[in-house]
Structures are given as C-alpha cells and as structure tokens.
Amino acid sequence: MKLILLDADDRVLLIQAKDPQSHAECWYPVGGGVEPGESLQAAAAREAYEETSLTDLPAGTPVWRRDHRYEFNGQAFDVHEEWLLHRVEHFTPKPANLSAYEARTILGFHWWRAQELLTTRETIFPLELGQLLTKLLVEVRHEG
C-alpha cells in the first residue's frame, strides 16, 4: 500500500532512498506491506508512524491501484499496491521504527508540489506520479 500524504498546500510527502547495490537514488511515497489480519487503514497508520512518526493518521480515501515489478538491491519484486489519499497537517517527518534494511537505505524526506514532480530531474517512483497527482488534485477540487 502507498500513501499520498497531502498537506494543506497540496504537497505530497516523499521518501528519498539509495539502492545499496546500484547506489541509485530515488523518491517514493510512504507505504509498505499489509500484515496478515491487518486492515488497509490500520496498515497505513502503522507504516505512516514507522516511517515518519506521524500519529493519528486520518482515514484515507482509495484513489489508485496498480500491479508492478520493481528492482531494488539486486532483487526483483512483484507487488500489488492500493493507494490511499490522506489529508494531513504539515509536519517534519522523522523515522520512528524502521527496519535495519530501511535504516540503511532511507536518506531523507521532502514535501513535493505536483509541478515539481513534473519538472524534476530526480527519479520519482512511480515515474508518472506528477501526472497522477496533478489529475487527482483537479478531481479533488471538483468534488470539494
């Protein structure tokens, strides 16, 4: 599951990581796996806390699904992702409970505007996140 943590200025929080094998750097949303017996919302709250120290995560709205394959640290992973949109107060993220593996790979955090995602030379995952976020923000404004 992936979380689109959006602050009041429509910025999304992304994590910067470095592949231990290739040393390639990338940015990706907060998220992770759903444990057996855990609801999607409970998993979202747990991952948000573990990766950013965010407590009291508001309920998320499902916005996207995707199946894809990615490579990291010389291994290939096939994953199914449920994407949830969460409106949050702006905060300064800091890891609370990372695995040893995450602690070795996570470099930092940044709040990104959709326009920045469209124009950056940084590697963002998914690659189309800027376009997806731009479209989502238009849809959210029309609903509100």
UniProtKB/TrEMBL annotation:
Pfam family, one: NUDIX
UniProt keyword Magnesium present: yes
Residue ranges of every copy of the Nudix hydrolase domain listed in the record: 1-135
Keyword Magnesium tagged: yes
Cofactor(s) the record lists: Mg(2+)
Keyword set, alphabetical order: Hydrolase, Magnesium
InterPro entries for the chain: NUDIX_hydrolase-like_dom_sf, NUDIX_hydrolase_dom
GO MF term (any one): hydrolase activity
PANTHER family, per the entry: GDP-MANNOSE MANNOSYL HYDROLASE
Name of protein: NUDIX domain-containing protein
Source organism: Kribbella pratensis
Taxon lineage: Bacteria, Bacillati, Actinomycetota, Actinomycetes, Propionibacteriales
